[in-house]
Design goal:
The structure holds two protein chains of two kinds. By secondary structure, chain A is mostly helical. Helices cover 70% and strands 1% of the residues of chain A. Chain A has a single domain, classed as ABC transporter involved in vitamin B12 uptake, BtuC. Chain A has a two-stranded antiparallel sheet. Chain B is globular and about 80 Å long. Chain B is built from 13 helices and two strands. Helices cover 68% and strands 3% of the residues of chain B. By secondary structure, chain B is mainly α. A two-stranded antiparallel ribbon of chain B has the order 1-2. Chain B has one domain: ABC transporter involved in vitamin B12 uptake, BtuC (Orthogonal Bundle), CATH 1.10.3470. Classes of the chains: A mainly alpha, B mainly alpha. At the A-B interface, helix 3, helix 4, helix 10 and helix 12 of A face helix 6, helix 11 and helix 13 of B.
Chain lengths: 314, 371
Amino acid sequence: MSDALTIGFLTSVLAAAMMSGSAILYAALGEVLAERAGVLNLGVEGMMLMGALGGFAVCSWTGSAELGVIGAVVVGGLMAAIHAVLTVSFQANQVVTGLALTIFGGGLSAYLGASLVGDPAPDRFSRLDIHLLGDIPGIGNILFNQNALVYVAYIIVPSLWLFVYRTRPGLNLRAIGENPATADAMGLNIARQRYMYVILGGGFAGLGGAVISLATNPGWAENVTAGRGWIAVALVIFGTWNPARVAAGAFLFGAVEAGQFRLQGINVPVSSFFLNMLPYVFTVLVLVFSTLRTRRLRIGQPAALGMAYVREER
Amino acid sequence: MSAPARTSPPPVARGWKFERVSNPSLAAQILVPIASIIAALIVGSVIMLMAGENPLGVYREMFDGAFGSNYRRSETVVKTIPLLLTGLGVAVAFRMRLWNIGAEGQFYFGAVFATWVALYGLPSSGAWVVIPAMMAAGLLGGALWGGIPGVLRGYLGVNETITSLMLNYVAILFASWLVHGPWKNPVGFGFPGTVVFSPATYLPTWGTTRVHLGLVFGLIAAVILYFVLQRTRWGYEISIAGHSERVARYAGMATGRNMVIVMLVSGGLAGLAGMSELAGNGHSLQRELSPGYGYTAIIVAWLGRLNPFGIIVVSFLLAGLLVGGEQIQLSLGLPSAIAPMLQGIILFFLLGGDLLTRYRIVRVSTTKAAS
């Protein structure tokens, strides 16, 4: 245990936290977009799984991890399109539709991916050390000795924040989730916008899946996401639908996950079964904490979240 | 006060439109699930064709595996039991729009409690003592595990969907730890799992089949639930709260307390499913006790329209899908994941088809515009 708390151990855990946190981060950012538009999508786990499989499959066929990422985004978007059709056009119950998407994605990815289990990845995102920045002691190793998909997040998080809070389309997005009837009266096409953000959100979930299958643990295995899609949904609440806060939360979860693996590595006298519980228990605790906090501060979810918008019934 | 004169006639939509139906017809309520299953099989076959399989062959093999002989039908009934009990549990919660998706964990927690009774609590008692005690333990374990998200939601407003799902992973890891560690069979050749229980714990079976008393638990639970939900004040409160929590609160109903009770009942039924699967079928605690019954239960509940009698029928059909999925794995070497894939598609069509039961398509007459 004595070497557990050295600086080297800490930086290595935090560096790993950036990496494993980024999978959850992308999925959670996608969910922020969908929920901001008023559509709850509990299919994140299913979309991530299909994205992970799609990314790995395209990478296997083409030999290119970059093309794999594109494949993952497309597959995630297609999965989300099912959700959009059912919840926006058919006004189906958003909770149950999302659950169906998760069950479907789990089954379909296990079925289609059965022949790819155990295949080696022809290409993967490996660490790219950014010169000068990567040489900064401590921080350099944590932030700038990562794979390309982590660097992309450094650009996406602030741009998404700017988009949501500082642009006209972002204002429209928030309006649609808060009060679709008013947004409709303003001349926005609610159905089209919701389709757009749900599908975009699915693309992000697919990207999150690709982080797993092309960077953190390259390859494909049944149920490889292991609940990370659900953790992403919880993170959206923790992050109060704000991309920057969600990013902070994803890093925290990445740290729990990375810390758990490191603790197993140094043989702490606790069963690995209990260490494996940590991310899930932590999610419950964080959810309790953030629910109490959002209640106190009165920052609620988007007011129209989970409700279908029907013009005649407004 | 006179209304301002209309300068133009109201805009008239031409052609067809959806019109809301207040009471969906019974025919629509039965036909839509059936049509959903058929449509799902068609879409499933397209996916299989793209994957290079012969869908008709796969379906024939699945159907044959599930319903092809008396023995196979009885095996489907064996799998109906856990689906029926967990499906009923999920339905109780869904009635209140409490999205308990933690039936899988509640199932395992019920099984863990029942195992403790069988191996450590009453290891040498007779059947009339140990079986009721295991039932009580199963109910208690499941209720406890369902009660955690219930209390968090009822009194603190914490989203129960995520907490109940997260607790699945915790429960399964806990059960895995038990069967790999403290409760591991010392002469199990290294395989994780407890020792086989004493025969006093075995639920009676029907004739030469493996169908066990758990079926009776499920059927009785369905009847009781039907009456509680349809005929009691509490059942009424639950559905009111399901439609509008605010209305229930204004009417003076204790929604927070009702949420906790509903989650206790919901989890208890899943725990009883875990107990009956152990005492009726597995006879030792294993990590593989459930192939995901708690997740299939969500589909069972929704497909059965949250109606206990509907759930009896649907749990049998979906048990057939699971048994059929295992059959194609055995005989054709295909992944059994075809079954959950089809479950997902069935649910998609059911959800989409709901629009057809809630709305009807009417022709809008094109009135002449007075110009």
